[in-house]
Design brief:
globular; Jelly Rolls; mainly beta; Immunoglobulin-like
Length: about 550
């Protein structure tokens, strides 16, 4: 671990973890390994690891069977035929993704252990891949089996061999056991189907933490990783040493700003590696966390009133920021409210109203659902203060959480980017609930004009509202000609809110389309019939 430090009041510091010399002792890792000169990659599978453990197993009737639970106990963790008619019965284990299979072992159930005559007299083992699940390839078979435990490595029944007759792997996701012989006097009791493979683990992780010995404003997080086809890498970071659950933490983009509450003294990070290819793995070289010891403000707590509004109705709200600023802080001249697009009507500092356009400017991003406020230098907050932002909102989602962030123009110059400092936003006071009967999933559709001419640089705008959408998804505007061919598509990502999209009469290659009637379709992905609106517009000369 190497730290680079500059002037505590002017330059950003950074902490860097390099894997060239191997992970340090304070790094927690699971299912990964370090390769000298390369970095950290997924660990190679142990020859004794059963990759079928905990996976789904079903019989030929489509019913789940307890043959992958790691237990062969009487009744609850075994499959018993209850009659001798077992010829043709089969069982399929889904490994979740393709594996390079080298061995299969079938353990008897406890009933067969107690009564050894209840074993499989003949069997066939096959595998099929993810992309060809109906094409079964032979792994091993024995028409006259005498073993209570079937083990393809010791019974020499493995059918997949190279030209030198050495056993080799078979790629497959599904493993099928078929009983090919029966004894009219005996049942069959199966306990477990185990599958072994070569290649890499399908998932691994490293976790660590940055301790700064004092409060900091965390900036960008960077990393270096090679990601071959069929593999993936994700990194998340969060304040504090104990992060539970990690699944609830935002996965970052490379170079993205830290999203947790600030200031902090400990930042936890977690890198995850994935593969869907047996012999492919990401390789992770380094991770770097930037931070400012000089804060924008010592603390900020945001709250909003009212906390309940009528759904879809324009309502005036007041967002209040209680800011503490010390003499060592940058001070606040930039405010960012994430989670709401507010038409700002008034701004007050300690009860004093500011002049719009002179003392401050505002902007809003409907797509990102953000409101930004920039104070002029004379109104920079350099002591403890209360900022009130009053404006109108139109909310459609059930729950709308507003997150405050503070910035400083001088810090932006010093560091080369605005290191937004995330404030404290207790849900009880920073969340607005929209109540009332939700409207149509896609509603209030209005076109600026139905007939327009791209030859005159005209376009048609589509204004509409998406309601009843809790989780963000893609909202698409698609335009088709009368032959049903799509000529243009626009996509916005978001939740319940007002949307505005436009078509300029050009195709995907920026060429003006032929004059005539065109069909448009607005779709909320995953919304089914309710999430779709259709209509026509006309391109004219």
């Amino acid at each position: 671990m190497v730290a680079f430090s500059g002037n505590a009041f002017a330059e950003m510091e950074r902490e860097v973890w390099e894997w060239a010399q191997g992970p340090t002792l304070d790094i927690v890792h699971n299912s990964v390994e370090w390769v000298a000169g390369e970095g950290v990659m997924l660990a190679r599978l142990s020859p004794e690891k059963n990759v079928a453990a905990g996976m789904v197993a079903k019989d030929d009737l489509g019913l789940r069977v307890p043959l992958t639970d790691g237990d062969v106990s009487l009744g609850v963790s075994e499959w018993v035929s209850n009659n001798p008619n077992v010829f043709g019965r089969n069982f399929i284990v889904d490994l979740g993704q393709d594996r390079a299979i080298t061995r299969v072992r079938v353990l008897p159930g406890q009933t067969a252990i107690n009564q050894p005559e209840y074993f499989v007299r003949g069997y066939r083992l096959e595998a099929a891949g993810t992309n060809d699940s109906d094409l079964w390839r032979i792994l091993a078979e024995a028409r006259d089996n005498i073993n209570l435990t079937i083990d393809t490595s010791t019974d020499s029944t493995w059918s997949v061999r190279d030209r030198d007759q050495n056993d080799v792997f078979r790629r497959g996701r599904f493993v099928r056991l078929t009983i090919t012989r029966q004894d009219r006097s005996n049942w069959v009791a199966l306990g477990e189907i185990e599958v072994f493979a070569v290649g890499y683990e399908i998932e691994g992780l490293l976790t660590g933490q940055l301790s700064t010995s004092g409060p900091v404003n965390v900036g960008r997080v960077h990393w270096e990783v090679s990601v071959p086809e069929g593999t993936a890498f994700q990194l998340a970071s969060a304040p504090g040493a104990d992060v539970i659950p990690w699944q609830a933490i935002h996965t970052m983009e490379n170079g993205e700003l830290f999203a947790g509450q600030e200031p902090v003294e400990v930042v936890a990070w977690r890198g995850q590696m994935f593969t869907s290819e047996p012999f492919a793995t990401p390789t992770w070289q380094r991770v770097e966390i930037e931070y400012d010891r000089r804060l924008v403000a010592s603390s900020v707590v945001g709250s909003v009133l009212p906390v309940t509004v009528s759904r879809g109705e324009e309502t005036e709200v007041t967002y209040r920021l209680e800011i503490e600023v010390s003499s060592e802080d940058y001070g606040v001249d930039l405010v960012r409210l994430s989670g709401v697009a507010m038409s700002v009507q008034e701004v007050l500092i300690n009860g004093r109203a500011l002049n719009a356009g002179q003392d401050y400017t505002t902007s809003l991003d409907i797509v990102a659902q953000e409101t930004r406020l920039a104070l002029d230098g004379n109104n920079r907050v350099e002591d403890d203060a209360v900022i009130e932002v009053i404006g109108n909102v139109r909310l459609l989602a059930d729950s709308n959480v507003i997150r405050p962030m503070l910035g400083n123009a001088g810090q932006s110059v010093d560091d080369g980017y605005t290191n937004w400092q995330n404030g404290h936003n207790p849900l009880a006071i920073s969340q607005i609930s929209a109540q009332g009967e939700p409207g149509d999933l896609v509603g209030q559709l209005q076109l600026s004009q139905r007939v327009f001419s791209p030859y005159l640089d005209e376009q048609v705008s589509f204004d509409f509202v998406v309601s009843r959408l809790s989780n963000p998804t893609d909202v698409l505007l698609s335009v088709y000609n009368l032959n049903g061919n799509r000529v243009r598509q626009h996509v916005q990502y978001g939740a319940a809110r007002n949307y505005q999209m436009a078509w300029d009469g050009r195709d995907e290659n920026a060429r003006i389309v032929e004059p005539g009637i065109y069909l448009f379709e607005i779709e909320v992905r995953g919304g089914g019939v309710e999430g779709m609106r259709r209509g026509t517009c006309v391109v004219a000369y």
